[in-house]
Design a protein that fits this description.
The structure is a single chain. The protein has five helices and eight strands. It is of the alpha+beta class. It has one domain (about 20-180): Arc Repressor Mutant, subunit A. A five-stranded mixed beta sheet has the order 1-2-3-4-5, with no helix packed on it. A three-stranded antiparallel beta sheet has the order 6-8-7. The longest helix is centred in the middle third of the chain and has 21 residues, at about 100-120. The radius of gyration is 19 Å and the shape is globular.
Length: about 180
C-alpha cells in the first residue's frame, strides 16, 4: 500500500448495544437518520449531542433547503428529538441550547413545506433536472458549480424518499428519468 495515497486501516469495533459504558460514564447512542446515512448522536450526563439534525432560522433564511438523504426519516428523527430529555443540546449547526422545541418546530415546518412543494410540483411529470431547477427557483436560489450538485443531491433525497413511500413514481423516457405524483 502506498502510504502517501492511502492510510493504513483503522481498527473497527462494532457495538450492538445502544449504550457505552466507560467506568462510571454512561453514553447512550441515539439513532438520528435522515440528514445523513446512519447518523448518530449521544446522550451523556444530561447533554444531548444531536449531530446535524437541526438548523437555525438564519440557515433557512439563506440556504432554504438543508441536505437530507431521506426527508421522511429526518422527520421521524425530529419527532424523536422531542422525546429526548436533556439539560443541554449541542448540534453541528446551532449554538448550544437548553431547549430545542422551537428549533424542532421550525425545522419540521420547513421540511413539510418542501415535501408538500415536491408533491404539488410532480402533479405535472417532469425530468429530474427540471425538478432541481423548480426547487431552486421556488426558494429563490441561484447556485453554480458545486453548490448546484449539493442541491441536486438534496432533491434526489426528496425524490427517493417520496418514491420509497409510494407517493411518486418515475419512468425513463428518451433516456431521461421523468418523475410524477401517483
Amino acid at each position: 500500500m502506498n502510504r502517501f495515497i492511502m492510510a493504513n486501516p483503522s481498527p473497527v469495533e462494532v457495538f450492538s448495544s445502544n449504550e457505552l459504558q466507560f467506568d462510571d460514564l454512561k453514553i447512550e447512542i441515539l439513532d438520528l437518520p435522515g440528514h445523513s446515512v446512519n447518523q448518530k448522536g449521544f446522550l451523556v450526563d444530561g447533554v444531548a449531542f444531536v449531530a446535524d439534525t437541526l438548523f437555525p432560522d438564519n440557515f433557512f433564511n439563506k440556504q432554504r433547503l438543508p441536505f437530507n438523504y431521506d426527508p421522511n426519516s429526518h422527520a421521524q428523527t425530529l419527532e424523536k428529538l422531542r422525546k429526548i430529555e436533556a439539560k443541554h443540546y449541542i448540534g453541528g449547526h446551532f449554538l448550544p441550547q437548553n431547549s430545542i422545541s422551537t428549533l424542532i418546530a421550525n425545522n419540521l415546518s420547513h421540511l413539510n413545506e418542501s415535501l408538500s412543494f415536491m408533491r404539488d410540483l410532480l402533479k405535472t411529470p417532469m425530468p429530474q433536472d427540471r425538478v432541481v431547477k423548480a426547487f431552486l427557483d421556488h426558494y429563490g436560489l441561484k447556485k453554480t458549480n458545486w453548490e448546484y450538485f449539493l442541491y441536486r443531491a438534496t432533491v434526489n433525497g426528496y425524490l427517493s424518499s417520496l418514491h420509497k413511500h409510494g407517493e411518486i413514481k418515475y419512468r425513463v423516457f428518451d433516456n431521461l428519468p421523468v418523475w410524477y405524483a401517483v
